[in-house]
Amino acid sequence: MLKKHFKLISGTANRKLADEVAKILKIPLTPVEIKRFHDGEIYCRVLESVRGCDVFIIQPTSPDASLNLMELLIMVDALKRSSPDKITAVIPYYGYCRQDKKTKPREPITAKLVANMIETAGVDRVITFDLHVAQVQGFFDIPSDNLEVVPLFAEYIQNKKLKNIVVVSPDAGGAARARYFGKVLNAPIAIIDKRRPEPNVAKVENVIGNVKGKTAFLVDDIIDTAGSITEAANILLRFGAKEVYALATHAVLSDPAIERITKSNLKEVVVTNTIQIPKEKMIGKLKVISIAPLLAETVKRTHEGLPMGVVYEQMYKKLERKIK
Ligand code: R5P
């Protein structure tokens, strides 16, 4: 049972997810008016008092990343000026996260810039899912929870009851994620040697590890143009994999992702609903796992000052039981 003075607010980026969370928590979403001026500026007004409340705003910075980020900042500003007790920004997909370091001179580090903007706007705490790299959490000087979807995906894989599987990272940067999955599933891993000659172009040349005769599960954080996973699927099959599935937390799905996935050799592409997927992109190969139950539990526990560790322990225990 949620205490008094609790408010859940949704931006326009993923209203469906916010509705699911509100339903699980058995509370109505606090109404807000969000509209655009003719010049594109965003207007926001919270339609009921939030004075003294513990407020949670759900707003991923999904495509259009800049627009949704700006909407989040403006909503936070509207709230901050309305005397809440605390503001938690729930950002299931944290855009601008891939620019987390300088790889060439005179480049920005947008993952840090956006963290600064969110803090400056007046957010007290953030909740994210599967940041591109975990250390981005340290770009925030306010408390943050970066939730993993590994148990949700691991359960999905386990339910297929397949033998002889291999977990594959589509690039060296994702090796730690694949290793973690491999540990949870008690499966070997492989890594694809991917290079990026330019942004959004993926070139793969080699597979490190044995995939021959195995069902390969590619695990990644983001599917953007789907170049990485489709190229990876091709090379895995060339190296003798029996079949290839792809799992990724954030379904950005920029063009030509859907076309590439449709034409690809991928058996299934499993994503979550951190980003709301438009109807026209919901092709048959795409399976969506909802993060709403996990998010609802996190919001509830954050509000009540309870730890999340036990929830993960339970999820992993359940998986272990299935492995045995
Ligand atoms: C890159 O480091 C990320 O982890 C993803 O692999 C990448 O963003 C996917 O992009 P795309 O789908 O355009 O290949």
List the helices and strands and how they pair.
Layout: E1 6-10, H1 15-25, E2 32-36, E3 42-46, E4 54-58, H2 65-80, E5 86-91, H3 110-121, E6 125-129, E7 144-147, H4 150-159, E8 165-169, H5 175-185, E9 189-198, E10 201-208, E11 215-223, H6 227-238, E12 243-251, H7 257-263, E13 268-272, E14 286-289, H8 292-304, H9 309-323
Parallel strand pairs: 1-4, 4-5, 5-6, 6-7, 8-9, 8-11, 11-12, 12-13, 13-14
Antiparallel strand pairs: 2-3, 9-10
Helix pairs in contact: 1-8, 2-3, 4-5, 4-9
The structure holds ribose-5-phosphate.
As for the number of domains, it is 2
* Count of individual helical segments: 9
Q: Rg, please?
A: 20 Å
State the CATH architecture of the largest domain: 3-Layer(aba) Sandwich
Sequence stretches where pLDDT stays below 50 over 5 or more residues: none
Which tags fit this structure?
324 residues; alpha/beta; Rossmann fold; seven-stranded mixed sheet; globular; binds ribose-5-phosphate
Structural write-up:
This protein has helices spanning 15-25, 65-80, 110-121, 150-159, 175-185, 227-238, 257-263, 292-304, 309-323; strands spanning 6-10, 32-36, 42-46, 54-58, 86-91, 125-129, 144-147, 165-169, 189-198, 201-208, 215-223, 243-251, 268-272, 286-289. It has 324 residues and is α/β, with parallel strands linked by helices. It has two domains: 6-147 and 292-313, 3-Layer(aba) Sandwich (Rossmann fold), CATH 3.40.50.2020; 150-289, Rossmann fold, CATH 3.40.50.2020. The strands form three sheets. Strands 10-9-8-11-12-13-14 form a seven-stranded mixed beta sheet, sandwiched between helices. Helix 5 (175-185) links the parallel strand 8 (165-169) and strand 9. The protein is globular. The model has no long low-confidence stretch (mean pLDDT 95). Ribose-5-phosphate is lined by residues 98, 132, 170-171, 173-174, 200, 202, 220-228. Ribose-5-phosphate binds next to strand 11 and helix 6.
